[in-house]
């Protein structure tokens, strides 16, 4: 299986519609940035996907090492998107799961292959 990094929105959206399991079925394992974990716990609330990620031994959390890149990406993106893109570059991920238009545009510009929730669901259906 290929190495896949996920931003927050695919995790929360798939959990909200009861399809979180397709991530493991399609990709085997996922890598997320610490900022994604922080977003799943934002403001002390329990967001969709939080429990699923906490209980998934097939999801690994990382702190991206290139803080300068994260800071540069933060000029236009939220923390989860910025760290996810930096992490995907560091890990040489074959895919980054990302929904937001600005984040997808940045990811493409940096040579990454973004896939959103719709693409994930279409792949699962196929």
UniProtKB/TrEMBL annotation:
Domain of life according to the entry: Bacteria
A family per Pfam: DUF3368
Stated name of the protein: DUF3368 domain-containing protein
UniProt xrefs under InterPro entries: PIN-like_prokaryotic
């Amino acid at each position: 299986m290929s190495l896949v990094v996920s931003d927050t929105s695919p995790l929360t959206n798939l959990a909200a519609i009861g399809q979180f399991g397709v991530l493991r079925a399609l990709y085997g394992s996922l890598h997320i940035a610490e900022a994604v974990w922080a977003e799943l716990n934002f403001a002390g609330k329990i967001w969709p996907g939080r429990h699923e990620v906490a209980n998934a031994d097939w999801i690994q959390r990382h702190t991206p090492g290139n803080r300068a890149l994260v800071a540069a990406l933060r000029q236009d993106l939220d923390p989860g998107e910025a760290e996810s893109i930096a992490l995907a570059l560091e890990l040489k991920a074959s895919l980054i799961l990302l929904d937001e238009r600005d984040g997808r545009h940045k990811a493409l510009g940096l040579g990454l292959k973004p896939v959103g929730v719709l693409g994930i669901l279409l792949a699962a259906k196929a």
